[in-house]
Amino acid sequence: MANIGDYRKDFDILNSGDYVYFDNAATSQRPNQVLDAISNFYRTANANPLRGLYDWSIAATDMYEDSRRVVADFIGAATPEEIIFTRNTSESLNLVAYSYGLDNVSEGDEVVISVMEHHSNILPWQMVCRKKNAKLVYLEPDEEGVISKEEYESKITDRTKVVAIGHVSNVMGVTNPVKEIVAYAKSKGAIVVVDGAQSTPHMKINVQDLGADFFAFSGHKMLGPMGIGVLYGRKELLENMSPFLTGGEMIEYVTRTDATYAELPHKFEAGTVNASGAVGLAEAIRYLQNVGFEAIEAQEQKLTALLMEGMSKLPYIKIYGSKDPKKHCGIVTFTIDGVHPHDISSVLNDDHVCIRAGHHCAQPLMQFIGEGSTARASLYFYNTEEEVKIFLEKLAKVREVMGYGA
Ligand SMILES: Cc1ncc(COP(=O)(O)O)c(CN[C@@H]2CONC2=O)c1O
């Protein structure tokens, strides 16, 4: 059994200088195995997949569809046809809103989301409700970001057609009770879309166990390349949905006035697909499975505990979310009295420490917690205790650098 620290050698960027990368919730870094898999595709099987009748195109198609099978197994889909490759979580969530929401939400219906959602899981539903004259209902968490049973049972009703909920908040780090929300939503006749962008990199996902009707995530947050995302959808729902984007690859037959569409999953994959991205994502999945989510979770929880314990010694720092480091998924959002989050990030960057500052595409949540913006450190399994110590040492200097007393 490899030691968790043995994997860091695979990430050249992390070993190329003195940078401390604590912005993994925005995007992760990539191991050489993923970069080599992408390079290998272009060096040995690069052709436009799915339509060509020659060896390279057949090889590219095989690599693309093998990657789909890897993704389906990874998240417990019933069949690979339930896996749609998109560009990212944002596109996946828009696909559901446009192709399912507009056809199934009617005037007077309700769509339930939470105030903690990322804009990618708010704006598509604002669009649906505006176009269909339906009502958008917000679940509100407690101070630690927990959505209570009373809260979701009071707001998910017989008028609810869609519940769209983040699995893990990219600000609070809290894991929502998705399985319970799904069960209750189904008892009310609603379908559930789960935004898995911040959970899939950190924990074992089984979409059938969750009961999700749709599940979205991005390759770039889990060691994969940018530009490849996934939408899982229950086959019987996808089969009855209109295409989202139209054009090449996704048709059976086209006349001057009409067209019939390809079978799943190709109906939802218009144009030349991101075959190399899918191959890179499949390699990222194999890499994560080799590390193991138990080891990933243990390392993240150990580092988050060290981080929060050190930050708690600085009285001018406020941490958002749970006081329990085990309930942060590696995400620690904070403010420093008197210092704008952008200045926190800039001062830390002077010491080669990379964190995120801003609204994190979660402005309704910022309004809910009464902040315009916050700073956020987010860890992954390849970060180290030494990096946490460096972060804490540099963080303790920020106020001084900004002209405040220590
Ligand atoms: C919870 C959540 N949902 C959806 C998205 C959108 O993902 P894509 O950008 O891959 O479509 C993000 C991105 N997270 C942002 C991106 O940068 N920092 C963040 O926290 C997210 O954290």
UniProtKB/TrEMBL annotation:
<feature type="domain" description="Aminotransferase class V">
    <location>
        <begin position="20"/>
        <end position="391"/>
    </location>
</feature>
<dbReference type="InterPro" id="IPR016454">
    <property type="entry name" value="Cysteine_dSase"/>
</dbReference>
<protein>
    <recommendedName>
        <fullName>cysteine desulfurase</fullName>
        <ecNumber>2.8.1.7</ecNumber>
    </recommendedName>
</protein>
<comment type="similarity">
    <text>Belongs to the class-V pyridoxal-phosphate-dependent aminotransferase family. Csd subfamily.</text>
</comment>
<keyword id="KW-0663">Pyridoxal phosphate</keyword>
<keyword id="KW-0456">Lyase</keyword>
<dbReference type="Pfam" id="PF00266">
    <property type="entry name" value="Aminotran_5"/>
</dbReference>
<dbReference type="InterPro" id="IPR000192">
    <property type="entry name" value="Aminotrans_V_dom"/>
</dbReference>
<dbReference type="InterPro" id="IPR015421">
    <property type="entry name" value="PyrdxlP-dep_Trfase_major"/>
</dbReference>
<dbReference type="InterPro" id="IPR015424">
    <property type="entry name" value="PyrdxlP-dep_Trfase"/>
</dbReference>
<keyword id="KW-0808">Transferase</keyword>
<dbReference type="InterPro" id="IPR010970">
    <property type="entry name" value="Cys_dSase_SufS"/>
</dbReference>
<dbReference type="GO" id="GO:0031071">
    <property type="term" value="F:cysteine desulfurase activity"/>
</dbReference>
<dbReference type="InterPro" id="IPR015422">
    <property type="entry name" value="PyrdxlP-dep_Trfase_small"/>
</dbReference>
<dbReference type="GO" id="GO:0016829">
    <property type="term" value="F:lyase activity"/>
</dbReference>
<dbReference type="GO" id="GO:0006534">
    <property type="term" value="P:cysteine metabolic process"/>
</dbReference>
<dbReference type="GO" id="GO:0030170">
    <property type="term" value="F:pyridoxal phosphate binding"/>
</dbReference>
